[in-house]
Amino acid sequence: MTAWFRSEGYPVNHKRVARLMRKRGIEAIYPKPRTSVPHPEHRVYPYLLRGVEVNRTHQVWSTDIPYIRLHGGFIYLVVVRDWYSRYVLSWALSITMEVSFCLAALNEALSGAQPEIFNSDQGAQFTSCNFTGRLESAGIRISMDGRGRAMDNILQSGENWVSSLWDVS
User: Which of 138, 168, 149 is nearest to 64 (CA)?
Assistant: First the structure.
């Protein structure tokens, strides 16, 4: 919008255009990442990690779905990670938010070891019967972050575990 107004001879900057658009209730139409939408009929499990000291490998695993912005939309990355070692146990990419790519990453991680507790958010992929059933059949306790708990995936050192995926160490 700013570029168009400038091409028409109006001396505006992006802040003015954004303010006027907000004031008029105008917003851009584009696909938005909706990575943690709960399904109303799926069971939500309690958060089990409040006050728990994670002090060994395979005590707690977690998963999340960050999105990667592409020119035509988004691609989704699911990662299964050990909380103590911060090791990425498995990952998968998908262009949709279907449970199948999450289940594939979970099955790959479980082929090598098994955690005591598995933590996730309340997204429909992680509350689905297929996903929770796989965890329950393996005897793994399920923990789910509360709604709006964006800080639950930040490690004790303050490092965001998703951004640390790219660390080579």
Answer: 149
